[in-house]
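Hi R.,

As promised on Friday, here is the backbone we talked about, encoded as structure tokens. Could you run it through your design pipeline when you get a chance and send me back a sequence?
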């Protein structure tokens, strides 16, 4: 039988297989490291069409998070407040202020304000606000000290590794449901004991939290 390939072809095929294997391993390792350590845009203020100051509304005025993010307890999304919510106050307060011109135009033209997204998880990640709120995860745990932010920015990396830190040991992070929206809440010295009791009380399935299907569906 005639030889169609030169002897070097055997070595080429072998090293192609070996090289492909090494490349695949390095690619997987790189993607895992990137997913767990990527801190892109953490702490970087996101410019908005209206210079909304959380430090004034949630801080100085003490507005509850649910006043604007009304669906956070019943929906997967926290919701962005419609202009009507803003005008509940600003039809009487700071009327005509230049900083509120975009709000007024939105109200008069019946067109929504196009807010720029701050927290944008990948499409393959499922996150439910209501599930976290119902199980004692405070707003500050993910969004930072919002009542002290002049603007708004991503306070935590929200990477898979960061999420798993909580999913693997929820007793270190959960708080009483009555304190979820309390931005001044501080974990007590016996957080692990209290958290352990709350995990049982809220029927949190700790064994299922780290499973892939919990967030990837």
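Update: got your reply. Pasting your designed sequence below so it's all in one thread:
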């Amino acid at each position: 039988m005639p030889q169609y390939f030169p002897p070097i072809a055997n070595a080429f095929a072998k090293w192609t297989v070996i090289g492909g294997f090494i490349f695949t391993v390095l690619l997987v390792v790189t993607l895992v490291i990137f997913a767990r350590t990527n801190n892109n845009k953490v702490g970087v203020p996101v410019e908005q069409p209206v210079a909304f100051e959380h430090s004034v509304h949630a801080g100085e005025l003490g507005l509850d998070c649910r006043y604007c993010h009304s669906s956070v307890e019943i929906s997967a999304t926290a919701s962005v407040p419609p202009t009507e919510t803003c005008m509940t106050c600003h039809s009487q307060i700071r009327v005509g202020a230049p900083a509120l011109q975009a709000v007024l135009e939105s109200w008069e033209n019946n067109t929504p304000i196009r807010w720029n997204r701050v927290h944008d998880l990948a499409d393959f990640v499922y996150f439910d606000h209501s599930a976290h709120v119902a199980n004692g995860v405070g707003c500050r745990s993910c969004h930072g000290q919002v009542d002290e932010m002049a603007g708004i920015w991503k306070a935590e990396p929200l990477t898979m590794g960061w999420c798993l830190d909580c999913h693997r040991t929820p007793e270190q992070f959960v708080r009483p449901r009555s304190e979820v929206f309390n931005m001044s809440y501080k974990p007590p010295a016996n957080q692990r004991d209290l958290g352990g009791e709350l995990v049982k009380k809220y029927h949190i399935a700790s064994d299922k939290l780290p499973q892939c299907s919990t967030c990837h569906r």
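One thing I noticed while checking it: Residues 72-77+117-215 form one domain.

Thanks again,
M.
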